[in-house]
Amino acid sequence: MDTMQKYENLKAILTEMKEVVVAYSGGVDSAFLLKVAHDVLGDNAYGVLAISPTYPSREFERAKETAAVIGARIKIIETNELEDEKFKNNPVNRCYFCKSELFTRIVAESRQFKNFVDGSNLDDKGDYRPGMKALDEKGIRSPLQEAQLTKAEIRELSKMLGLPTWDKDALACLSSRFPYGENIDIEKLRVVDEIENFLYDLGFRNIRARHQKNTLKIEVQPSHIAKFFQDDVRTQVVNKAKGLGYKYVTVDLEGYRQGSMNEVLGEQLRVAN
Questions:
Q1: Exposed, middle or buried, 161 (CB in 10 Å: 0-12/13-18/19+)?
Q2: From the DSSP assignment, how many helices (H) and strands (E) are in the chain?
Q3: pTM (2 decimals)?
Q4: Which of 105, 114, 158, 195 is the most exposed place for a label (fewest CB within 10 A)?
């Protein structure tokens, strides 16, 4: 199918569902899904925006603004994944515990609706995604995957529909900044959130502040890497990171790439999960 055929297929899938609650983060995928669901189902579709210390703080207002542009209603809830020791211990299947908490709360808050959907796209099948098990257990559907839509196609269609998110940076939970096995706590999350906000204000995009004990490893859009070698920028970044407790500051010369923390996982684990 070409992109427009996939788009029509998505609309048909949502029409057949009659009513949906969208797990909405304000990112490219969930914003597009909420837009199409709202266009097709009107008030029989709405989004649930879950806030917690793992959600990047700079995204909250933007997510609300995007929902207003779409014209869709959203409900804002709080999740408590940090109360789960299994999540805090950060095992390789950490995402499972996060998604389980998220969709347990979403379903509990929206019992009058029968169908719950998330914004996973076709490309997500190419990475290690333990959270998909939680979706299966909770009966959550992924219409973008069902329609065979890739990230690039979602951006293309988002632009066609006038969504401000069509060229938005990739969005991910702040817990993805920590190597598996390192305990996650609210202070560590606050620090990486503050650093990423600082880098964003300096003009960097697709930012990941990867926490590695006393070392900060920064990933940004590859075309922005050279900016770190401007003396004033380099000094500002080093001073900020050291002021927040890091001893060493590094820049990943490969730049941002999806799932870089999963590169240490063996191929056998990826396939098994």
A1: middle
A2: 11, 7
A3: 0.90
A4: 114
H-state helical runs in 71-216: 85-88, 94-109, 131-138, 143-146, 151-160, 186-201
Pairing relationship of beta strands 248-251 and 45-51 according to DSSP bridges? unpaired
Name the β-bridge partners of 117.
22, 141
91 Cβ contact partners less than 8 Å away, ≥ 6 residues apart: 180, 181
DSSP 8-state class, residue 141: B
DSSP label at residue 102: H
Tens digit of pLDDT for each residue in 93-120?
Answer: 999 999 999 999 999 988 889 999 999 9
Q: Which residues pair with 74 in a beta bridge?
A: 47
Q: Going from the N-terminus, what domains does the chain have, and what CATH number goes with each?
A: 3-160 (3.40.50.620), 174-263 (3.30.70)
- DSSP letters, 7-66, are HHHHHHHHHHH--EEEE--SSHHHHHHHHHHHHHHGGGEEEEEEE-TTS-TTHHHHHHHH
- The whole-angstrom distance between residue 24's C-alpha and the CA centroid of its chain comes to 10
CB contact set of 249 (below 8 Å; sequence gap of 6+): 215, 216, 218, 237, 238, 241, 242
